[in-house]
């Protein structure tokens, strides 16, 4: 009986936007952090970030997620203004309640200390903040007095309860309750207020803003105590702040590419963490979670700060915060390489999740195809170049091979041979050198090399044909064409070289018998998914074919039973699949534009 189980997931980094604050959440036990990417909420283990879970039930882009103080539930919100409250104790994350407190994107969430009330703020049409009971949705007062988008909200953890908000009207609004009523507006900031946070003991709260300033207030009365640092706290806008568990220290993060640790009793800087010199080193969020001090850079990297050594983080969690566009496996199946729309390439250990990015001068645009061959990672990009990078390694190769038209994909052979499918030509490359270019009068969609390196296949778009060329040394000689239902979107030769499967824009997968002169195998045209097929991969034994699609599903087909299909439904929920491959006959790996890499145990 067929079956499958997801064994692990390597998730996306936080999605960031320049000069825009966002929120990291943490569980009350100090074990996990959570953040948003796309339509997902990512939960990651602090000790081992490779241990992760992904909640995927939102239909709009998620914006913020927070644990209840009890630890049993998470409230997550999205751009449509919906709040979903779901269980954390079960793998299925069962939904408890869903509400829509405002009519626009929600920017921040705060739970009451007894986990019974939820306060939210954001970009509403008539109101910008709201507080309600978590189990009924009933209002708990009126959070009025806000005239523009509210960016941040917090709930005092001790009695008497208070709520504070800060936003684009340059003010901090203070409420007493419950039921909560407007008490006063605080107007010390001269630009947007990005983050407001009560200390854990409730005695003080801090506001930080785009003016580079922070202000300290009495947590009960909102009386101004002083300005953070006695003057401008950072040279750039401040996007986040977080208190230490004992309420004696605070961290702030800024667009000036630093994180600062403050002694709140002395109102002075203890340490300054300089995170870099590039634009991508701007710091947009921070969290003090137990013994961990975390910050997030504009490039999405999660930095583990070291109080004893401010010059170097203890750990940096890297990956992708732009949609993944392609993937490839190393020849020993121990490493998966992924590339995204920005040109960033990351390599992952398939057994441990350990990962890093390839550095140096690389692609400047979306990577449209990649593969590993003879110790080199070969990548092609919409920047009209092909690059050879020695692997394992952390630096791009020194030179790029420039194409005359845009590469659509790359097919790999042996002994340094590769074929690049460009829009108007097919280029033979060997060991990083252009050897032969074949101009064509059709738009090329994909190219592949037969495992015995005797033939090259090329897909045409408008003519809906498979073009077969004999490979004579490093040149291509026209051989034959095979009519198909539609343009080819992906190729996969079986490892034994007998079969070639072609995915087409018509959603069909056609398999041809190479040994019979590329004859279409009867009945296999019944292989068809619910949406465009984006990727194909044969298992090592050449008995099963896996296909990924825009419909979020993976289907496994078998030659022995042409009309049977084994489906991994919602393999990447709410996300199209861009790559599949086999680690073994019973282990599959997949990637999607949700930026998650998932491993599956397959029982055939």
From TrEMBL:
<dbReference type="InterPro" id="IPR019775">
    <property type="entry name" value="WD40_repeat_CS"/>
</dbReference>
<dbReference type="InterPro" id="IPR011659">
    <property type="entry name" value="WD40"/>
</dbReference>
<dbReference type="GO" id="GO:0051015">
    <property type="term" value="F:actin filament binding"/>
</dbReference>
<dbReference type="GO" id="GO:0030834">
    <property type="term" value="P:regulation of actin filament depolymerization"/>
</dbReference>
<comment type="similarity">
    <text>Belongs to the WD repeat AIP1 family.</text>
</comment>
<dbReference type="InterPro" id="IPR015943">
    <property type="entry name" value="WD40/YVTN_repeat-like_dom_sf"/>
</dbReference>
<feature type="repeat" description="WD">
    <location>
        <begin position="186"/>
        <end position="227"/>
    </location>
</feature>
<keyword id="KW-0853">WD repeat</keyword>
<keyword id="KW-0677">Repeat</keyword>
<keyword id="KW-0009">Actin-binding</keyword>
<dbReference type="GO" id="GO:0045214">
    <property type="term" value="P:sarcomere organization"/>
</dbReference>
<feature type="repeat" description="WD">
    <location>
        <begin position="231"/>
        <end position="272"/>
    </location>
</feature>
<feature type="repeat" description="WD">
    <location>
        <begin position="317"/>
        <end position="353"/>
    </location>
</feature>
<dbReference type="InterPro" id="IPR001680">
    <property type="entry name" value="WD40_rpt"/>
</dbReference>
<feature type="repeat" description="WD">
    <location>
        <begin position="526"/>
        <end position="559"/>
    </location>
</feature>
<dbReference type="InterPro" id="IPR036322">
    <property type="entry name" value="WD40_repeat_dom_sf"/>
</dbReference>
<protein>
    <recommendedName>
        <fullName>Actin-interacting protein 1</fullName>
    </recommendedName>
</protein>
<dbReference type="Pfam" id="PF00400">
    <property type="entry name" value="WD40"/>
</dbReference>
<feature type="repeat" description="WD">
    <location>
        <begin position="55"/>
        <end position="96"/>
    </location>
</feature>
<dbReference type="GO" id="GO:0040011">
    <property type="term" value="P:locomotion"/>
</dbReference>
<dbReference type="GO" id="GO:0030042">
    <property type="term" value="P:actin filament depolymerization"/>
</dbReference>
<dbReference type="GO" id="GO:0030864">
    <property type="term" value="C:cortical actin cytoskeleton"/>
</dbReference>
<dbReference type="InterPro" id="IPR020472">
    <property type="entry name" value="WD40_PAC1"/>
</dbReference>
<keyword id="KW-0963">Cytoplasm</keyword>
<dbReference type="GO" id="GO:0030833">
    <property type="term" value="P:regulation of actin filament polymerization"/>
</dbReference>
<dbReference type="Pfam" id="PF07676">
    <property type="entry name" value="PD40"/>
</dbReference>
């Amino acid at each position: 009986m067929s079956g499958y189980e997801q064994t692990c997931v390597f998730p996306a980094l936080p999605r960031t936007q320049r000069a825009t604050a966002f929120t990291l959440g943490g569980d009350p036990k100090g074990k996990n952090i959570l953040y948003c990417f796309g339509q997902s909420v990512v939960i990651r283990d602090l000790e081992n970030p490779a241990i992760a879970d992904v909640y995927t039930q939102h239909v709009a882009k998620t914006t913020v997620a927070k644990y209840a103080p009890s630890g049993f539930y998470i409230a997550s919100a999205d751009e449509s203004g919906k709040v979903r409250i779901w269980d954390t104790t079960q793998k299925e994350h069962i939904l408890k309640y869903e509400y829509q407190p405002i009519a626009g994107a929600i920017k921040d969430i705060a739970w009451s200390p007894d986990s019974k009330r939820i306060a939210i703020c954001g970009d509403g049409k008539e109101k910008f903040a709201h507080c309600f009971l978590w189990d009924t949705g009933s209002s708990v007062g009126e959070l009025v007095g806000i005239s523009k988008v509210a960016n941040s909200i917090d709930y005092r953890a001790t009695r008497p309860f208070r709520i504070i908000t800060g936003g684009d009207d340059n003010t901090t609004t203070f409420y007493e309750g419950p039921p909560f009523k407007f008490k006063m507006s605080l107007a010390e900031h001269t630009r947007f207020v990005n983050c407001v946070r009560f200390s854990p003991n409730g005695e003080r709260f801090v506001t930080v803003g785009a003016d580079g300033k922070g202000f300290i207030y009495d947590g009960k009365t909102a009386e101004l105590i002083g300005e953070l640092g006695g003057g401008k706290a950072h040279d750039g806008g401040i996007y986040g702040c977080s208190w230490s568990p004992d309420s004696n220290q605070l961290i702030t993060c800024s667009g000036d590419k630093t994180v600062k640790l403050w002694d709140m009793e002395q109102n002075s800087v203890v340490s300054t963490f300089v995170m870099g010199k590039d634009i991508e080193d701007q710091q947009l969020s921070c969290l003090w979670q137990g013994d961990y001090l975390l910050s997030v850079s504009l490039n999405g990297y999660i930095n583990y700060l070291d109080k004893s050594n401010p010059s170097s983080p203890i750990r940096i969690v890297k990956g992708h915060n732009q949609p993944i566009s392609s993937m490839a496996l190393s020849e020993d199946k121990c490493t998966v390489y992924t590339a995204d729309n920005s040109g960033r390439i990351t390599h992952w250990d398939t057994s441990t999740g350990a990962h890093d990015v390839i550095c140096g001068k690389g692609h400047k645009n979306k990577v449209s195809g990649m593969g590993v061959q003879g110790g080199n990672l070969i990548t092609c990009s919409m920047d009209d170049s092909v690059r050879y990078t020695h692997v394992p390694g952390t630096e791009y190769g020194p030179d790029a091979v420039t194409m005359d038209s845009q590469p659509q994909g790359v097919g790999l052979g042996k002994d340094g041979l590769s074929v690049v499918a460009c829009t108007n030509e097919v280029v033979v490359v060997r060991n990083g050198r252009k050897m032969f270019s074949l101009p064509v009068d059709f738009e090329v969609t994909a190219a592949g090399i037969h495992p015995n390196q005797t033939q090259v296949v090329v897909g045409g778009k408008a003519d809906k044909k498979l073009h077969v060329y004999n490979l004579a040394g490093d040149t291509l000689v026209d051989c034959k064409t095979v009519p198909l239902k539609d343009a080819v979107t992906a190729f996969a030769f079986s490892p034994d070289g007998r079969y070639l499967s072609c995915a087409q824009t018509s959603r069909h997968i056609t398999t041809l018998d190479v040994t019979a002169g590329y004859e279409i195998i009867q009945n296999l045209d019944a292989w068809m998914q619910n949406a465009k097929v984006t990727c194909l991969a044969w298992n090592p034994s050449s008995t099963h074919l896996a296909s990924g699609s825009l419909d979020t599903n993976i289907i496994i087909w078998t030659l022995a039973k042409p009309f049977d299909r084994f489906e991994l439904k919602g393999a990447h929920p709410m996300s199209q699949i861009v790559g599949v491959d086999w680690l073994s006959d019973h282990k599959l790996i997949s990637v999607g534009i949700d930026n998650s890499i998932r491993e599956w145990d397959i029982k055939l």
